[in-house]
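During the reporting period the student researcher (J.K.) took over the structure-prediction task from the postdoctoral fellow and processed the backlog of single-chain submissions. One of the processed entries is reproduced below for the supervisory committee.
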Amino acid sequence: MIGLALQGGGARGAYQIGAYYAFKKAHLKFDAVVGTSIGAFNGALIASGKEKELLKFWSEISIGELLNFDSQYVQKKIDKNYDFAYFKLGFKNFISILKSKGISIQGLEKILNLYLDEDLLLKSKMDFGMCTIRLNDLKPLYIFKKDMIKGKIKDYILASCYLPIFHMEKKIDEHYYIDGGFYDNTPINMLIKKGCKKIYVVELNPIININRKPKQEIEIIKITPKRNLGGVIIYDTKSLIENIKMGYYDAIRVVKKYDGEFYCFKRVPEFFYNFLVRKIDKKELKHLKAFFHAKTNKLVIIKAMEYWMKYKNIDYYKVYKPYKMLKKLQKGEISKHFVYKFLTQLKIL
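J.K. obtained the following structure tokens:
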């Protein structure tokens, strides 16, 4: 069995739908998906077969409007226009939240009502599970869809997303629940107990790593953001779309076994890279390897290319052929930078 675990992380969850489309591209099929917080929301729609709707949601949603923030305040936040009016509107939002005893969850409920079809989820061959915490005794609740009260599945998902900043409401069984991420932000143990031998984990915050080591022989494959995804609340749609694309290429790099850390390079035989450094001074090569913390010729060349590609603002969202990219980087540039000098000294012919 193959499982998918989706980490919690607020609006950074856009990254996960990008990763899921990479899995589809690689023809990966999952027997079960579990998640916490936004991972539970994404997981429920994925298990329902509504990944197109999920992609549409993350491509168009205004997080500020979802949380009922003043539209002028949100726009000023996006534009980074921190004038007096911005702080005045921010204070007004703050007072409104205090009076309401937290941020209203009506926007979240509306989204779930719009996108989640409980019958589709229950009939799906892909299982779905999630984690939340009961507030009165801080007891974690791990639950799969078959054990959820019919008609209350949306409430379970809301419970998993319930940050303390939200207006508290009793859910599921007349208890208060809070975000499951406070206990287990990546509930892979649910998949292990279910019998999954291979688990793909889509992280949103690399600092919050999996804190439970499986006892059995379980293959865990992590998809980790290689660049900053932003905060838990992301106001502009452009950043969300950027995170979707990042999720796709970070995942496709792993599942297709491409080379590179920030960019995707098609794999070529090791001797190609050894051939390229044949005329490089050994001391210079040793210096470059130390600079990039690279042990092999292949790794130092790839890291050097990525270093210069980032410097030249070359698009992250493509799959590159190392030979063609190296030729491109060697052309039309005059620079005394030691990394560029190294790249020009690599002899293709």
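The committee noted the following: The chain has a mean pLDDT of 86.
J.K. will present the remaining backlog at the next meeting.
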